[in-house]
């Protein structure tokens, strides 16, 4: 009898222990917190609730990234990991995984996923690299880069977009992205030289400060062309101190690189 009581008590305390463990969530500053409130549907599992967009994102990666010719495994994995829906305004959530750009306010756009993948692949970056991005915008391209390199420095000319991107990065736990408010035409001398530079707004000529801030062997990926028109996406490889090699990656359409801070 006594033995039965002891066994019973041990069982009860074990069950209490389990239920306490389940209900306690350890949070630290790197724990990504979901930004949007999800109403729990009893028919879906906890994993679905954590990322209800996973299936849509996977479909986009297959049909809009791999099928379009992107091959770099690290880039494909990054496109699978970055939650694009966290970077688009609430009213465009339903289109977060459509393969086209979307407005983000202030006359700017979040780039098309395929173009983000193409530019990241074209940069030919490695895990220990330090990269500069010009044109933070929503922060999506910076986040994709941050998945494949060691550190991303990103510059944005519109102050309100800087603030929004910084809070998005904090919310999602991207501690390897540093954003600065300023004109990216001049690059970010303090952290130069960079292994690669990606420009996501189009100037009408190649800014020489950016070429100067590239390491020898590094790539500058940049759309160049008329404001409001179609531009050419270039890969500019810095062959030596004085030499560059350019490669046409195709026609693209980006918002213009502006020169007035706001
Ligand atoms: N990479 C972004 C795309 C944003 S669109 C994303 O993934 O969402 C291009 C951005 O470049 C805009 O936010 C625009 O304000 C910014 N921009 C334009 N001219 C700039 C300049 N001279 N320096 C820094 N950012 C600039």
Task: Provide an overview of this structure.
The chain is built from 8 helices and 9 strands. The chain is α/β, with parallel strands linked by helices and 262 residues long. Strands 5-4-3-6-7-8-9 form a 7-stranded mixed β-sheet. A two-stranded antiparallel ribbon has the order 1-2. The site of S-adenosyl-L-homocysteine has 24 residues, from strand 2, helix 6 and strand 4.
SSE string, helices as H and strands as E: HHHHEEHEHEHEEHEEE
Main CATH class = Alpha Beta
Considering DSSP H and I runs of 4 or more, what fraction of the residues is helical? Answer: 25-40%
The fold-level CATH name is Rossmann fold
Name the assembly state. Answer: single chain
User: How far is the N terminus from the C terminus?
Assistant: 79 Å
CATH architecture: 3-Layer(aba) Sandwich
Ligand inventory reads: S-adenosyl-L-homocysteine
Categorize the overall geometry.
Answer: globular
Q: Strands of the biggest beta sheet: in what spatial order?
A: 5-4-3-6-7-8-9
The figure for the number of domains is 1
CA-atom Rg in angstroms: 23 Å
Summed over residues and divided by their number, the pLDDT gives a mean of 87
